[in-house]
Fold:
Amino acid sequence: MGQFYAFDNNLNLNVMIREHGKVEVEKFLKALTEQEAQMLYEDPYFTLRENQIIPQDGRFGTMILSGRGWGKTFCGSAWVNQRAYEGKGPILIVGQTASDVNDTMVEKNPSSIIEVAPDWFKPEYYPSKRLLVWPNGTLGFLRSGDTVEQLRGQNSQTVWLDELAKWEKLDEAWSNIVFGLRQGDDPQYLITTTPRSKPLIKKLYNSPDCVVISGSTFDNAANLNERALEEMRKAYEGTTLGEQELHGKIIWQDDNALWKRDQIDAFRCKRPDNILEFTIGLDPTTGGGKRRNDEAGIIVACSAMIDGDKHAFVLADYTVAGTPQVWATAVKEALDAYPKATIIAESNQGGNMITQVLSNAGVPAWRVKLKHHMKSKYDRAQPVSLKAEQGYLHHCGTFDKLEDELTSFTGESGEKSPNRLDALVLAVDPLIIDNRPGLKIDRMGI
Structure:
């Protein structure tokens, strides 16, 4: 028989049992020579579950969204070795960090590329060069998602991206990677990740060029510790987190959140013609912009009359991470685009600093109002969300990051501060909500 991979002859145990029955499969296995049986035993393709087999149907890529322990890494390693065997390189292998690439994807982990490869087709690993070389000369280049510049200009025919949904600079990294996926006659990517409700993940999920494979932790129960499985079941089963971490489902929205995606979609519309007034909501930061969550929410809205009632419309999202000078510049850009807008800024943190920074960026003082809130973010947002539910708030376009915040914020402690949501509330509140007790409004002097 010689050296071969099981996929050469579609030899997958689970597919064979389904198609031919256990009796016929047993006959086939007993007829193998000792060498042939050993080669099948070493071949990861032979033992993959059916839903771990990457379809070869001409589509551009595959995304595996699954619970922990489903076998994502094993599946990715098997696929990369298969592509290397076919000579479909160069291969780009990218994890969240360099240590993730080394310890999870390449070596040390029982499901890593080197461990999963058969003895006769194990690649040589050159850590200092961040390079794998398979026996047939196929090259594998190792990179990390947290060093985006390393991904620029890296041409490839095969790409494996692990835990993509967790990467900090997700969109930028993806752009660099996909632009380089142009070598050979069969460019393909594979994403293996625990699901997160990120715009890129949702875009790929809905793309006709991407195969989506979903799976539960319990699909792989035969290979997992029974006691550990039971503990995970007790801790997470029946919860939203359990749906994500155990069953591999994207939580598109939190049922306890103030906004619902179907409601946003139902009232989405074009920008109105008869605009009454423009507002720019600013939820500023006072730090140095070095933390991941250190964003200043900047949302542009307007109002218009529809059938005798006043409605509000979300027009743009200028939210930016960075120093006060950075977000002040972004506010000025928004004001340049919407010169008739009134800027409404939360003054709970920053106070007079906000007015000074905006002034330094060229924002006229008379364009700005400060609001000092006495209520929680949730309580401030609730009246606006009720108006949205009633159809008085419309999104003029799609604002992925804003809508992710709206449909995930529940007001529970420990949640990320909803910067875009806060800015939306600041912008929309004066358009369609009357001033309420507990809200102090200070107009900046000219």
User: Anything to note?
Assistant: The first strand starts at residue 61 and ends at 66.
